[in-house]
């Protein structure tokens, strides 16, 4: 019996959590696990710990599959990353940073950077081919007008996958962070200052005065 410890992290952004069912499959060089349920409720900014038990050691974990399905209402999920610890203590990290929508399965490679020549296993080669095909289908270009730069071959932003379009949700998050940062700079004296600083030490001194100050429920630190 081989036991794998898995940690699934949900992104800390607006509506990143989900009430849809999420499950995971571990794929190793010597086999794969059964599909294991992660949770029926994942909250933004939180991590979910679980164990995946297999009859035998799967070898180095090279891929994971995240499965999402819904019983009634659709509730998209933004996965930040997945961390897997093998029976021998080896840590495998799988960055995700993307939305899962509808009934879908997403395959993620282990996060170590590798070149095409490093893919010795056929399953990794096939994964790379599928990923390339998906990108070619998503990023098709057309000529808008004579002499103009080419643009994406869609009629509206709504036609794009949610991981490609700059959605209202992401714009809201970006605006909130920008407003918070602007407020911290105002209190620090960085904005609207009529004169220049005499030295770098003076600038650091002014900014350090805001340490621990709370703005709109957030703690501002230099």
UniProtKB/TrEMBL annotation:
Which residues does Ca(2+) bind? Answer: 17, 75-76
Q: Where does the protein end up? A: Cytoplasm
> Its principal location?
cytoplasm
What Pfam families does its record include?
PLAT (PF01477)
Q: Which cellular components does GO assign to this protein? A: cytoplasm
Which molecular function term from Gene Ontology is one that the record holds? isomerase activity
Going by the UniProt record, its keywords in alphabetical order are: Calcium, Cytoplasm, Dioxygenase, Isomerase, Lipid metabolism, Metal-binding, Oxidoreductase
Domain (PLAT): residue spans on this chain: 2-114
Q: What InterPro entries does its record include?
A: LipOase, LipOase_C, LipOase_C_sf, LipOase_mml, PLAT/LH2_dom, PLAT/LH2_dom_sf, PLAT_LOX_verte
Which parts of the sequence are marked as the site Essential for stabilizing binding to COTL1? 99
Where in this chain does the record put each Lipoxygenase domain? 114-222
Q: Describe which pathway this protein belongs to, using the record's wording.
A: Lipid metabolism
Q: Which GO terms describe its biological process?
A: lipid oxidation
The UniProt entry's sequence similarity note says: Belongs to the lipoxygenase family.
Instruction: Spell out the protein name for this chain.
Output: LOXE3 isomerase
Q: What is the lineage of its organism?
A: Eukaryota, Metazoa, Chordata, Craniata, Vertebrata
